[in-house]
Write a structure and sequence with these properties.
By secondary structure, the chain is of the alpha/beta class. The chain is built from seven helices and six strands, in the order βαβαβαβαβααβα. The protein has one domain: Rossmann fold (3-Layer(aba) Sandwich). The protein is globular. The relative contact order is 0.17. Bound molecules: guanosine-5'-triphosphate and magnesium ion. The site of magnesium ion has 6 residues, from α1.
């Protein structure tokens, strides 16, 4: 039976994360299969690419390379965004209506996470990305509910001897995101939002702005599962004397395809 194939938008993966983390380096490697020097980004950049050989899209597990459906499933868009604090609107704009976003790769420099300033910067950005995803989920009005958008925290630059191992990157970020969450809530209180100035919706805004589970405990990535976002941390390095290692990240992308 002949069926018309309607062109569908390709699954999209967003590269977000602080400046200098290695987003453009990863995009360049994916596009050219080789590393190349990068400059700090001032605008977003989208490439259409293929899942590299040796990785199987999860939707095509039972097909073989060469099968048209298998080959189609390998195609995706990779969107690089600038990480500079003043240029993050390019990334957050993508999160407002992420219709075709299949996953978010939050790239961090695992060596800078070992330092207070780098950790705080990454945690603030990560907090805002996760909160945007949570709001999108809880604010959805469709009966089907919005589709899930998973997040990969790519702990990059593991070639550097000062880099934290991935599980510690995850733990440090959870703790630092907890601090961000606390200070944002305090900021809201101090500004008077939800303090008897907003009529009947008092408290609602505060709740909407609170990431993850309520209560006294620390924020944990697993809280995000309730709002359709699985968060995993996987290590790698785009550059480095011993060559590149981005295996775990491509595997994660393959799982989402
Ligand atoms: P913005 O565009 O400012 O948001 O930064 P970015 O995340 O795109 O960073 P970019 O890819 O430009 O990389 C920043 C610097 O880190 C560059 O000098 C890269 O060569 C370097 N870099 C990227 N990945 C690695 C890595 O795995 N190991 C090491 N040692 N350096 C890396
Ligand atoms: Mg860049």
């Amino acid at each position: 039976v002949y069926r018309r194939v309607t062109p569908t938008a390709l699954p999209t993966f967003l590269l977000v994360g602080p400046s200098g983390a290695g987003k453009t380096a990863l995009l360049t490697l994916t596009e050219r299969k080789t590393v190349a020097p990068t400059h700090t980004s001032t605008s977003p950049l989208t490439i259409e690419t293929l899942l590299p050989d040796g990785f199987t899209p999860s939707s095509s597990q039972f097909r073989s390379p060469g099968d048209p459906a298998y080959e189609r499933a390998r195609r995706f868009l990779l969107v690089d965004t600038p990480g500079h604090g003043k240029l993050r609107h390019f990334a957050t704009a993508q999160l407002v209506n992420p219709t075709h976003v299949r996953g978010i790769v939050f790239v961090v420099d695992a060596a800078s996470i070992a330092e207070e300033a780098g950790l705080t910067e990454a945690a603030e950005y990560l907090h805002d990305v996760l909160l945007a995803l949570q709001k999108r989920y809880t604010g959805a009005r469709t009966s089907k509910g919005p589709k899930e958008i998973p997040v990969l925290i790519a702990a990059n630059k593991l070639d550097l001897f000062t880099a934290l191992p991935p599980h510690l990157v995850g733990r440090a970020l959870e703790k630092a995101v907890s601090e961000v969450r606390k200070s944002r809530a305090k900021g809201l209180k101090d500004s008077g939002v939800g303090m008897g100035m907003g009529g009947e919706d008092d408290g609602v805004d505060e709740e909407r702005e609170w990431l993850g589970e309520g209560g006294e405990g620390n924020f944990e990535f697993r809280h995000m599962e309730e709002v359709g976002t699985g968060v995993v941390v996987k290590g790698g390095n785009v550059l480095g004397g011993e060559g590149t290692d981005v295996q775990a990240w491509y595997e994660w992308i393959a799982e989402q395809l």
